[in-house]
Design brief:
This protein has about 725 residues and is mainly β. It folds into 7 domains: about 100 residues, Immunoglobulins (Immunoglobulin-like), CATH 2.60.40.10; about 90 residues, Immunoglobulins (Immunoglobulin-like), CATH 2.60.40.10; about 140 residues, Immunoglobulins (Immunoglobulin-like); about 80 residues, Immunoglobulins (Immunoglobulin-like), CATH 2.60.40.10; about 80 residues, Sandwich (Immunoglobulin-like), CATH 2.60.40.10; about 90 residues, Immunoglobulins (Immunoglobulin-like, Sandwich), CATH 2.60.40.10; about 80 residues, Immunoglobulin-like (Sandwich), CATH 2.60.40. It is built from 1 helix and 63 strands. The chain has a 6-stranded mixed sheet with strand order 14-13-17-18-11-21, with no helix packed on it. It has a 6-stranded mixed sheet with strand order 20-39-46-45-41-42, with no helix packed on it. Strand 13 and strand 14 form a beta hairpin. The protein is extended, with a radius of gyration of 36 Å.
Length: about 725
């Protein structure tokens, strides 16, 4: 804050811009200082400006701006920057004058292109003619072009069978005598000075009856189950943000498959003629913004087909928001994490082999959450070691659950500053590190989310995944990218520099750096870091051991040993191969919550003495702990009434005072409990005569009035259940 403390103050004012032309892009910028950090908003002619595709609020450190894309004549007027914090507020204004010439008023677009009808996906027999058509809303004629599987249709990518036309806002692509190579996703793109839009459809071409295609696929799309919600108060909760090196299971949902009528065996020569030409029934998958979409495609064939995923005809590659993997039973999976409006489109799973190809498609739609954010998070970019700020506005009266980075709940700290100013929520990240690159979410109590991506620019262009999971015996591949090949770099594995290791291989490819770990073992789990010239990115390697026979303990027994503890015992499981120890839990009778009885991760012995946090009737259960998990629980028969143990937070202290004064002893327990006082270790003290006894919550008092010389060396003891505390009274004679 440049050493400035107090109300906001403008260090640099917006510059006058003179006359501006329709269609230009401008940014009104100013520099503001204040402590605490100010919130900045903008007004035009006295009305608040809301961020959209035309207006965008930008800020970095103490620089704030309002960007305006594609100026219109209606943008003329007075713009005021309003900065406020808890100390005060400040305002600064500038006037924009947008001129509209005769030609600009005729040719300038007032909004980005919009499709009022889209092309329809089709399935045809080879040799047939296909026509894709769509209509653009009337306005300035946009620039139009078609793509097939990500390639623009022109010159080398077209032949005499292709023709395109655009008449009366109707775009048409015609393909005559289609062949299997024409199959794929076709996208019509429209662009003007304001923005662009696209509309997609898929084409599937069936081989002629005398050909065989040993390849089939069926694609379904669904949103992840409600268990992917961020849990309240649990910072260790994760939701599919880890890159996994081993195969993962795929839970198939009950969505109708778009190609149910394409179920067939390996010999496709028996296709019925009724399938020769039909429309593809592309199904829709609708999810709420901020949730995860999962596309599952069953792909079979001999030889085994290769599979690619595309969105609107463009190849999807794996990154921190797109996970691609193969699950059991020939299931291919694409996960799109933290969906946003830009993820709307047509998703296709294309399978091909030497004998042919096929594909399936699902259209994804992203809906607004139940609670709409007046101001959503926006993507941001920050320099390494710099500062990043993310800000949103929540609905009035809504309760916030917190900030998350790649699914992990963030806690306030020296680097993460979280501010709440009215309905504004702000996250400030100081000393930005490469591993701060990722997906940030602010979630409300009802599960509604707003999402942004933070891109960190520095010496590391691509960070490591936060976690990499593998199975014993597999290999793990860590990949990162530097911004310059001249920088010095090295790998760390479990804190040690990787130089020469029989199971580790280091490779380089241009700016990319690889660490490959072979023949993984459970003990290999730990941190893997890539360090380049002082910058570091870290991943957590988790190696899961092969499954072994997991059996619970046998013959558990319970017997009461005292009023505050219970002796529990059991026998090892049979067989007991791979057992590391045991875990014991207790629960209050009638409750469904279980708590661990010991501080250690697990017990080595086959018995333990259990204590409880509060009085009540308790039941117990025991697990066997193995390398790759724990067994099912074994309930210990019966229940037992136990009292909680007394714990002193402050014990008795010796007292020295002259005779005739009042002596007051006090002791403090962790929880309110009853106890009794003893005199000289034997006689119980009653609250009468010179002795007064008092309890206030967990604090107990004993007052002795007018102490006498004979009281010197008196021993006072307080006893509560099995615990006790003692002190001496020393009386000085008065001269």
């Amino acid at each position: 804050m440049n050493g400035f403390h107090g109300a906001p103050r403008f260090l640099a004012r917006p510059k006058p811009m003179g006359k501006l032309a329709v269609g230009e892009n401008v940014v009104i910028a100013c520099q503001i200082a204040g402590d605490p950090t100010q919130t900045v908003s903008w007004k035009k002619d006295g009305r608040w400006v809301k961020s959209d595709e035309h207006f965008e609020e930008v800020f970095e450190d103490d620089l704030y701006g309002l960007g305006i894309s594609g100026l219109r004549s209606s943008d003329s007027g007075e713009y005021v920057c309003c900065a406020k914090n808890a100390v005060g507020e400040a305002y600064m204004g500038v006037v924009l004058n947008v001129e509209e010439s005769h030609f600009s008023s005729y040719f300038a677009a007032t909004e980005k292109p919009r499709f009022i009808s889209e092309p329809v996906s089709q399935h045809v027999q080879a040799g047939k003619d296909v026509v894709f058509s769509c209509e653009v809303a009337k306005g300035q004629p946009p620039k139009l072009w078609w793509e097939n599987n990500g390639q623009v249709l022109r010159g080398a990518t077209m032949d005499d069978r292709h023709s395109m036309d655009f008449v009366d806002n109707q775009a048409t692509l015609s393909i005559s005598a289609v062949c299997p190579e024409d199959a794929g996703t076709y996208v019509c793109n429209a662009k003007n000075d304001i923005g662009e839009a696209s509309a997609a459809a898929s084409l599937s071409v069936e081989n002629l009856p005398n050909h065989k295609t040993i390849c089939q696929s069926n694609l379904i799309g669904h949103w992840e189950s409600p268990t992917d919600s961020l849990q309240k108060g649990h910072s260790n909760h994760k939701y599919y943000t880890d890159v996994t090196a081993c195969r993962r299971d795929c839970a198939m949902q009950t969505f109708q498959r778009p190609f149910d009528d394409l179920h067939h065996g390996d010999d496709l020569g028996g296709y019925k003629s009724s399938l020769s030409e039909r429309r593809l029934q592309v199904k829709n998958c609708s999810i709420v913004e901020g949730r995860h979409a999962k596309f599952s495609c069953c792909v079979t064939g001999k030889p085994k087909p290769s599979v690619i995923w595309q969105k609107d005809g463009r190849l999807i590659t794996e990154d921190h928001r797109h996970h691609i993997y193969e699950a059991p039973k020939d299931i291919r999976v694409l996960k799109v994490l933290f969906c946003r409006p830009r993820d709307i489109g047509l998703y296709t799973c294309s399978a091909s082999s030497s004998l042919g190809q096929t594909f399936s498609a699902v259209r994804l739609d992203v809906k607004e959450p139940d609670s709409r954010f007046p101001e959503k998070l926006r993507d941001a970019e920050a320099r390494e070691r710099g500062k990043a700020t993310l800000m949103c506005q929540i609905p009035f009266g809504a309760l916030g659950r917190g900030w998350y980075r790649d699914g992990e709940l963030l806690q306030p700290g020296s680097r993460f500053l979280m501010e709440e100013l009215g309905t504004l929520r702000r996250l400030i990240i100081r000393d930005v590190q490469p591993d701060d690159d990722g997906i940030y979410v602010y979630e409300l109590d009802d599960g509604s989310r707003t999402v942004s991506e933070l891109s960190v620019k520095g010496k590391i262009a691509k960070r490591l995944p936060r976690k990499l999971k593998a199975t014993e015996g597999d290999q793990a591949v860590f990949q990162t990218q530097m911004t310059s090949s001249q920088l010095q770099s090295h790998w760390l594995w479990k804190g040690e520099k990787v130089l020469h290791h029989p199971r580790a291989v280091i490779q380089e490819d241009g700016l990319f750096r690889f660490l490959i770990l072979h023949d993984l073992r459970p003990e290999d789990s730990g941190e893997v870091s890539f360090v380049v010239d002082g910058s570091r990115t870290t991943s957590q390697l988790c190696v899961k051991a092969h499954k072994i026979d997991i059996s619970p303990p046998e013959q558990p027994m319970l017997q009461k040993s005292s009023e505050t503890s219970a002796m529990l015992s059991w026998l090892p499981p049979n067989p007991s191969v791979g057992v590391h120890g045991y875990k014991v839990e207790h629960s209050k009778l009638g409750s469904n919550k279980w708590f661990c009885c010991h501080q250690a991760e697990y017990l080595q012995e086959t018995n333990t003495t259990a204590v409880v946090p509060e009085d009540g009737e308790y039941i117990f259960r025991v697990f066997a702990v193995y390398t790759n998990g724990q067994s099912i629980c074994k309930d210990i028969p019966g229940s037992i009434h136990l009292l909680s143990q007394a714990k002193f937070t402050r014990g008795l202290e010796d007292i020295l005072l002259p005779e005739g004064e009042e002596a007051t002893f006090s002791v403090e327990l962790m929880n309110p409990m009853k106890g009794h006082w003893l005199l000289n270790g034997q006689k119980e003290i009653a609250s009468e005569g010179r002795f007064k006894i008092k309890q206030d919550g967990g604090t107990h008092y004993l007052s002795i009035s007018k102490v006498e010389r004979e009281d010197d060396q008196m021993k006072v003891k307080f006893v509560c259940r099995t615990e006790e505390s003692a002190a001496d009274l020393h009386v000085q004679a008065v001269p």
